[in-house]
Write a structure and sequence with these properties.
four-stranded antiparallel β-sheet, 54% helix, 3 domains, Serine Threonine Protein Phosphatase 5, Tetratricopeptide repeat, Immunoglobulin-like
């Protein structure tokens, strides 16, 4: 009798131990959430290859995937919690949404519609211009402008085409008309000054250049070209100023240092000339300008 009771106690002990182990297993196992959905266009057309990025709000963990040929996507084994999900596809505006994913209940599918990025009517002309097909680009811009007379940017692009085609007078005419509507247009002022400098009209070029805030100019070539024209016209003080601007913007602009050395030598500033010729040799030791700079330094000494 005692023996049977002992057996029953042992069996019950084993059962309780098993239940405890099972319970412990459930306590320490992890549960996961599943997120899924589709990415489509505004009209409902599936978008293949759209990027879906899920970012956990809790720890910043990131999960990336792409949609299939039916616009579908699915990500399993996600820690439950709050997420920001980003959707991106070529030609469409990106979209973000915030969701909370559950591991207990099934999450609703996330169906996203992306809005296409508006295509500029000037895009075809821009493409042709980028391919250096300036005559074709000009015709395309003129066609678009005839249909949209008030289209922003069209006149300026036409001016650039005339400039690239070598019709500087026509380019000036177009840019000046643009400037009448927008007297402070940085790009138009730069274009006009550059064209006049190219024509050799230093006075007109400086007139437009001086209307600009020099701090907004980031192209060292502009300052270099102005400096060369000023130097040719024996305006060495101004030339020196523009060459210095050039090398301030680009510390490796070899020709800028070379021209600055020549200007300094012309002005009798021998120490300044030496420093600039030495920079030419340092930056481009095998160049023709470096060879001339070495001879200049020998003569200065």
């Amino acid at each position: 009798m005692v023996r049977n009771s002992s057996k029953r106690l042992l069996a019950m002990s084993i059962v309780f131990s098993a239940l405890f182990l099972i319970g412990t297993g459930f306590t320490f196992s992890k549960v996961f959430a599943v997120a899924q959905g589709t990415v489509k266009s505004k009209e409902g057309k599936p978008i293949e290859g759209a990027r879906i990025i899920l970012v956990s709000s809790e720890d910043g963990a990131k999960y990336e995937l792409t949609s299939d040929n039916k616009g579908r996507w699915r990500k399993a084994s996600l820690p439950p919690g709050a997420y920001t999900i980003g959707f991106m596809a070529d030609g469409y505006e990106p979209q973000n949404i915030n969701v909370t994913l559950s591991a207990i209940r099934e999450n609703e599918p996330i169906d996203t519609r992306l809005i296409p990025i508006p295509v500029s009517p000037l895009s075809q002309g821009d493409l042709l211009y980028g391919q250096q097909k300036y005559e074709e680009a000009l015709q395309e811009y003129q066609r678009v402008l005839s249909e949209n007379p008030n289209l922003d940017g069209a006149h300026e692009r036409i001016g650039l085409c005339y400039y690239r085609l070598g019709d500087l007078d026509k380019a000036i005419e177009i840019f000046q008309k643009v400037l009448e509507k927008d007297p402070h247009s940085r790009d138009v002022l730069i274009n006009l000054s550059s064209i006049y400098f190219e024509k050799g009209d230093l006075e007109e070029g400086l007139k437009y250049l001086n209307q600009l805030d020099e701090k907004s100019l980031t192209d060292p070539n502009l300052f270099y070209n102005v400096g060369v024209l000023l130097f040719k016209n024996n305006q060495t003080e101004l030339a020196s100023r523009y060459f210095k601007k050039c090398v301030e913007l680009d510390a490796n602009y070899v020709n800028g240092y070379y021209q600055l050395g020549l200007v300094s030598l012309n002005r009798g500033e021998t120490e300044e000339a030496k420093r600039n010729f030495e920079m030419v040799i340092k930056l481009a030791p095998e160049s023709e300008n470096a060879a001339i700079s070495k001879k200049m330094l020998e003569n200065i000494k």
